[in-house]
Specification:
The protein is of the alpha+beta class. It has 2 domains: 98 residues, Phosphorylase Kinase, domain 1 (2-Layer Sandwich); 204 residues, Aminoglycoside phosphotransferase (APH), C-terminal lobe (Aminoglycoside 3'-phosphotransferase, Chain: A, domain 2, Alpha-Beta Complex), CATH 3.90.1200. The strands form 3 sheets. The chain has a 5-stranded antiparallel β-sheet with strand order 1-2-3-5-4, with helices on one face. A two-stranded antiparallel ribbon has the order 6-9. Helix 3 packs antiparallel against helix 6. It starts with 8 loop residues before the first helix and ends in a 6-residue tail after the last helix. About 2% of the residues have low confidence. Bound molecules: adenosine-5'-triphosphate and L-homoserine.
Length: 324
């Protein structure tokens, strides 16, 4: 259960008093997420019920929030189907609940597709949607360094090395260095706002059509192809962590029909699929080792399996990914 911050109906009603969306009819915690607390909130306005989602941010500070609030508005205004923070009657979208940043957003319908049911047509659609997201976000006026990006993985691989086998520590370090070399090469790798965590559980499908992309709180300014690599590793890997090339081809085809790849992106693809695997191996390892989970109170932190991402990395090393 991932409701880390409990709220009462009185607290919620107080927040809702700033909006003209109606009165509180019902609310319930959403199980499933691991980073933030989410509630489905049903409001009654002129006899009609309408549903929203309230997110309370467990890790992001108030200072970090404007990037995400603005990004949601920016993308939604460009017809990208993502949640955005609803402004109250004074134009304020970012709220405070229990001392934490919070906002209310429209509810989307549909469900994520379980990993075992992902097919090429899902991958094709998410590829198209990600390319549209990248194009819409390419001139977004705010920039953000990923909080689990290059500085973080350089620092953390050093910090945890003594807790790992020397083979694992070397493997992480090898991929950190491979990304450093890629950056130094100054290849033509389009940069812009990326989603940063577009796993299949962050996409809703309705009647087999992609309805919305959720959970943009790892968004940052980075290589667009790196974002696609994150998607490929999650959406296109089999239970044994090998890559399903049929799904991966569909993903790349869907993406490329919206935004064509550069020649340098084709060269960078095998490296970035490994970087993306290293990033999630590391972010899963840290809580697994019991190092960093200070901000969670009142709920159990759900741990994801680091070994899966180590195996995806090994799979990417054994069979380098190809673009085109
Ligand atoms: N706007 C929305 N409309 C419909 N459902 C939503 C919306 N926002 C969140 N949800 C539901 O809440 C779940 C958790 O949301 P989200 O992925 O943003 O949380 P999180 O804690 O940041 O998760 P993660 O584990 O991916 O980091 C989603 O999987 C989805 O079921
Ligand atoms: N998608 C991440 C967790 C949320 O950031 C993972 O599977 O490790």
């Amino acid at each position: 259960m991932a409701v880390y911050t409990p709220v009462t109906s009185a607290e919620l009603s107080q927040l809702l008093a700033d909006f003209d969306l109606g009165t509180l009819s019902h609310f319930e915690g959403i199980e499933g997420g691991i980073e933030n607390t989410n509630y489905f909130v049903t409001l009654l306005l002129q006899g009609q019920k309408k549903e929203y989602v309230l997110t309370i941010f467990e890790e992001l500070s108030f200072e970090e929030m404007p990037f995400f609030v603005e990004l949601g508005h920016w993308l939604a205004e460009r017809n990208i189907s993502v949640p955005y923070a609803i402004r109250d009657r004074n134009g304020i979208a970012l709220k405070q609940l229990k001392g934490k940043p919070a906002f209310l957003q429209p509810r989307f319908y549909g469900a994520d597709v379980p990993a075992a049911q992902l097919r090429p047509h899902h991958c094709f659609q998410i590829g198209e949607a990600l390319a549209r997201f990248h194009l819409a976000g390419s001139d977004f006026y705010l920039k953000r360094q990923a909080h689990r990006g290059i500085l973080w993985w350089r620092r953390e691989t050093q910090a945890i090395a003594h807790r790992l086998s020397s083979d694992d520590a070397d493997l992480l370090q090898q991929e950190v260095l491979a990304f450093d070399r890629l950056r130094e090469a100054n290849w033509d790798l389009p940069t812009g706002v990326i989603h940063g965590d577009l796993f299949h559980d962050n996409a809703l499908f309705l009647d087999d059509r992609l309805e919305a992309i959720l959970d943009m709180y790892n968004a940052a300014t980075a290589y667009q192809l790196y974002d696609l690599a994150i998607v490929a590793n999650d959406w296109c890997s089999r239970p044994d962590c090998s890559i399903d090339t049929e799904r991966e081809s569909a993903l790349l085809e869907g993406y490329a029909q919206i935004r064509a790849f550069t020649a340098d992106e084709a060269r960078a693809w095998p490296i970035l699929t490994r970087t993306a695997a290293m990033r999630f191996w590391l972010s899963r390892l840290i809580p697994w080792l019991g190092i960093a989970q200070a901000s969670r109170q009142g709920g159990d932190m759900k741990l994801k399996d680091p070994q899966q991402y180590k195996n995806i990395l090994l799979s990417r090393l054994n069979t380098p990914a190809k673009l085109g």
